[in-house]
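step 4 of 6: structure.
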Amino acid sequence: MYANCKNYRTIWVNRNDNKIISVIDQRYLPHKFVIEDLRTVDDVFVAIKDMLVRGAGLIGAAAGYGMYIAALEAPKDNNFDEFILKSAEKLNSARPTAVNLSWAIDKQLKAIKKGSSIEEKIKIAFDTANEIADSDALSCKKIGEHGSKIIEEISKKKNGKTVNILTHCNAGWLAFVDYGTALSPVYHAFSKGIDVHVWVDETRPRNQGARLTAWELEQQNIPHTVISDNVGGHLMQHGLVDLVIVGSDRTTYTGDVANKIGTYLKALAAFDNNVPFYVALPSSTIDWEIEDGINQIPIEQRGEEEVKYIQGLHEGEIKKVLLTPEKSHATNYGFDVTPARLVTGLIFERGICKANKKSILEMFNERKK
Amino acid sequence: MYANCKNYRTIWVNRNDNKIISVIDQRYLPHKFVIEDLRTVDDVFVAIKDMLVRGAGLIGAAAGYGMYIAALEAPKDNNFDEFILKSAEKLNSARPTAVNLSWAIDKQLKAIKKGSSIEEKIKIAFDTANEIADSDALSCKKIGEHGSKIIEEISKKKNGKTVNILTHCNAGWLAFVDYGTALSPVYHAFSKGIDVHVWVDETRPRNQGARLTAWELEQQNIPHTVISDNVGGHLMQHGLVDLVIVGSDRTTYTGDVANKIGTYLKALAAFDNNVPFYVALPSSTIDWEIEDGINQIPIEQRGEEEVKYIQGLHEGEIKKVLLTPEKSHATNYGFDVTPARLVTGLIFERGICKANKKSILEMFNERKK
């Protein structure tokens, strides 16, 4: 997608030197656009751990390239395999709860094993990393194609008047390799000339909406308005939202959706006002083991400092300010679960289905036992 | 209530010189506790306009004392009455939408008129100002007594285990002369030894929860936890909220409640999880003209800079930081309307009633035509 009028992915192989992996450092967005070069396993570890890169798809891709860098960095002798395994372990520990991280590393380990020489192993690692990244981008592109049909239909019903879409958090291209999930349908519809406008929930405490989603949309020239997380209900009561699309961090095969904290409140408001509420997600986020999302999906609690402090731009510099009384405590749940009954539909790379066991199993036929 | 271990009201007559009115300057809370002395009508005008004082009850009381100061400041000759009228006009323009402002000024104008000498007029203005302040404090105290019974009942049902109360925005003593509305029942219950804990919605964009409610509770030593506005639904899903109490800026006689933006989302979550949702309010906030809150109560839109920027403490100084891309726009609705069907009950100074026309008219018998 566009950043500073140039086409980017969130992670790529340096054009002049394919031993270097470049990423956009998302910690400074929207205030500063910084590209970092990753040359060692340590660099990749820090990039994931310190959240230069974040978001399910992007973490997976970064881990994939990290294993390629490990193969480059490894001693070209009998210690090669040991270095690869240690690197895998290290990268895996960067964000232990990220499902895509271990998935990409395991995929690389299996692939690299097949090489009969060190040179071949490096080549396999490179190809596999590219494949992981390409496949993530392709899934997101397809989600966009399917999802844009919903937007197109609403546009037709409104005789071409602006379609107002509300989104929560950032499930745009910055969270993946390209396109994103919740925003991909918006990008696709916009590129087809459909008149869209996005309400961007700022998404406290980490403000991924105000910082990342707003920046993404601004860079693509898509009309958008930032709102505090409190506003969506009022907008829906007054007919100012035609559609809600959010992403998902984990979805039960029964249709319950774990996503950024606050998603449930928007789903309630959408339901109360007959606004369609869609979740866009790659099929990799389905949890085939869990039936009851609210009681079974573990919810990450993060540090209270993310609530008590906030970061922003002051006189050209990024600064952190204290928002609460020094002595007050804060609690910081990262996600909540939206029950399937509030979800209109799920937008997968395969197509759209209802948020219930029957529809999901029909779409993923191979899972039927 | 307590501030720095001393008992305060939000506005008071200086003990050493009853020609000076003192207020807590709320702009710097929770980071700095500043008291300002108001000596002229201009001082009072600026205090209301620049929001040194805010909140329905406190604005009314400040206007009352402002008219007393006008009587003191007025020339003691034929021009006295003209100065009083001009001062009334000036004060009225400080926050034109605040209902309590014009109500207090009108009350003073009528009262002052009855004095037969300038000296007597000054005395009347002083007494009336005190009466407005005392009556506000008394109403809030009574709301606390009635509301605490709800908390006490829950405490009994839980066999004395902590009662978890969620509140949104600041409807505490800082918004009134003393005690507050939504927090008054909490203070009363706490003083009776009931084990309470308050979930404080930070209440973006102006963060009255994180700044003012958290500070109030911390100063009274009441256990509390600040949360982002996104969290309440998740807490309710997991049984971590026993009761929601919020304030009201305007309530229709049919029970629809206009309150700080985001209140509606918490009401939806409370309803979805069978959590009682109460609104605490002085009867002066009832609008006897309007039937349909959602379609008839005008909702104030404020400047986008309140969403795009936020203020906090950085190295001992209060600073404002930019949160969004510079070019992104923001929209800032100040209030939303919670339909009566989601409200469990209304806590007035007279007692508690249901949020419907019949119950409200039964409580305000004199309004029945």
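step 5 of 6: annotate
 - Chain A touches chain B through 65 residues (CB under 8 Å).
 - Chain A has a mean pLDDT of 96.
step 6 of 6: archive
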